[in-house]
Amino acid sequence: MLINLPSETTPCVGRAAELAEVRELLREPGLVTVTGGAGMGKSRLALRSVRGGDWAGFDAVCWADLWPVQNDALLSASVADALRLSDHTSRTLVEALCDWIGNRRVLLVLDSCEHLVPAARSLVADLLTVCPRLRVLVTSREALGMAGEAVVGLGPLDPATEGVALFEARATAAGRPLRDTADRLLATRLSTHLEGVPLALELAAGLLRHCTLREAWELTEERPEALDREESGPFPSRHSALRTAVGWSHELCRPAERLLWARLAVFPGSFDADLAALVCLGGPLTADALREALTGLVRKSVVVLHDGRYRMLDSVRAYGRMWLRELGEEPAVAWRHAAAMLETSRRANDGWLSAEQQQWYARMGDLFHDVCLATRHLIDEEDASALELIGNTAFFWVCSGHLHEVAYYAQLALEVAPRDDPRRVRALWTLGLARILQSDHAAGRAYGRASLREAFDAGNIEGVRQAVYLEGLAALLDGEPITALNRADEALRAGVPAPRDAAVRPPAPGADPPRPALTFGLMLCGLVRVFALTGAGRLEQARREAEEQRGVCVGLREYWTRSYLDYQLSLIALIEERHGAAADHAIDMLDAKQRIGDQFGIAMGLDLLATSWCAQEDPGRAVVAIAASDRFWSAVGLLRRGTPEVLPMCALTRARTRALLGSAEYEAQVSRAQSMAPESLLHTVLGQQRTR
């Protein structure tokens, strides 16, 4: 089972009736929507409902946090991400989602939909129409308005009972527990004054780190007029209690904390201290002042710190955005955020071919929503830097399964960029890469040719080599290894390889072309050459070059290229019937792919591992690898894919393993293995090799 749920940072207090109602409604397929105003605890109720439920027999229980999604076009991508679906097809993502869920028993939570209601309504309608066993739990300030939708309205807590209980629990967590009856009576008055709104009570409890309960009460009693100006802010008048609590927290902040609160509101999701500094420094916020202010906001419960990352609750962020506009800083902070993403992407691109590669894959994954927001800002401003940002990010995103987003933003960036901008070369390459990996080889080759032509005309050697890699990749996937080999050899020469209509004569077979200093493009073309040599049957030469290049990768502590070299070394060993060596290289590939989160590569490596184990007359291990392979191929939306020589091996492996085990035992073992979460299943496969 795939379970993808956020952590519960604080316990849920009260809401017993609502919890029971939601859980009962989720017993049947369909849509359940938890509605309520800002700060009512919709997300916490949904999380507690799911975490406390019995989902035995379900295929997946997944949570999609939609607050960072500021664009309807990325809704489906965020849902696919929650389901760990890294779709590598040219279908729409809605089609891919419908196909992946299909008849599976899945519970999907869409949290914070209020800013995406029309798009969410359309997506959920499509999913429920096609997927008969799907449960969807939505949290939103308003219902989606669909036929058959079950709505659970969430109002304030009872101030005298659950409201006080929540306040007391959070006060204790803040180190200021209620001491006696007098404190509890005052807490009841405070809870009543704040109308039992959960977030308002939590913010009030957070302030006890800085003042006594009596001082907190007197503050709300004596200074409500300070909050009157927020009537036109992010909270409607009916949410006066929450407006009071948030405004009250704001009033108690020091000027530097207020300024940082406003600037932090630019972040669509979580962030770390380094990113906060990169975007929010300036004026009175020096480095020391920013660190102190961030600590102060955490202590006041304005910012939540969990596992080293910071996050604002939605209502608190909305308040910050209001103040950012009031300060007149919204455009400047948006540009600083975009500039920070651009600079980060440059560092990531520069660090790809280095020991920092693994860390940059993780970092760019954390920054996914920030890069989306920054790219959209640059596109809307018709700033051609969007070309560079998406180009720098592309190779990280495609490995993480964000092909649709890469293609979407690359297309938009190209539409607004000047025709003579040299950064178009990488954006065209990016779009071509996405199309090839989505199995649209014709479109991918066309974009590759366009990238090659513009790079060639500009004398951009590295751009040409990267474009030639696209040609070679498409040729390999189409079963044309000689074409791929010839083009790779041209790219590996010193000098600039030409477009195909001006191609130079390739070297004689078996000749080793001279190689200039190592770059990203040369690394990619060298990899194509190894694949092409294998496809052409020149195994000894392929193995020698693969081992040489792998040694370079090991020295650099680089994993992406190394993983595909291990793939080729495993394939060569299988062809040569060195099955133990094939398994070792497949395991090394899987380890590398796991480090960078490449599900497509994991699926490829599992095929070779299953084949090597089956060839060693070990069907017990082979069947688990087969089940894992099927699971990961499903997660990328494909039945199976790879260079042409691999596919017949996979078919023979499945047939032979079934014959060795017997059909009944084969199906039973596959079923048992596929009931596990993908990560657990992969861990089991790797553990089988290590224990032998």
Model description:
The protein is α/β, with parallel strands linked by helices. It folds into six domains: 153 residues, Rossmann fold (3-Layer(aba) Sandwich), CATH 3.40.50; 94 residues; 74 residues, Winged helix-like DNA-binding domain superfamily/Winged helix DNA-binding domain (Arc Repressor Mutant, subunit A, Orthogonal Bundle); 93 residues; 120 residues, no CATH class; 132 residues. Helices cover 62% and strands 6% of the residues. The strands form two sheets. Strands 1-3-4-5-2-6 form a six-stranded parallel beta sheet, with helices on both faces. The chain has a two-stranded antiparallel ribbon with strand order 7-8. α18 runs parallel beside α20. The radius of gyration is 28 Å and the shape is globular. This is NB-ARC domain-containing protein. InterPro entries: P-loop_NTPase (IPR027417). GO terms for molecular function: ADP binding.
Secondary structure: elements and pairs:
Blueprint: E1 2-4, H1 16-25, E2 30-36, H2 42-51, E3 60-65, H3 75-82, H4 93-101, E4 106-111, H5 117-130, E5 134-140, E6 150-154, H6 159-173, H7 181-193, H8 198-206, H9 213-222, H10 240-252, H11 255-264, H12 273-280, H13 287-299, E7 303-306, E8 309-312, H14 314-326, H15 330-350, H16 357-366, H17 368-380, H18 385-399, H19 403-416, H20 424-437, H21 441-458, H22 461-477, H23 481-492, H24 520-535, H25 539-556, H26 560-575, H27 579-596, H28 599-615, H29 619-635, H30 646-661, H31 663-674, H32 678-690
Parallel strand pairs: 1-3, 2-5, 2-6, 3-4, 4-5
Antiparallel strand pairs: 7-8
Helix pairs in contact: 1-2, 3-4, 4-5, 6-7, 6-8, 7-9, 8-10, 11-13, 11-14, 12-13, 12-15, 15-17, 15-18, 17-18, 17-19, 18-19, 18-20, 19-20, 20-21, 20-22, 21-22, 22-23, 22-24, 23-24, 24-25, 24-26, 25-26, 26-27, 26-28, 27-28, 28-29, 28-30, 29-30, 29-31, 29-32, 30-31
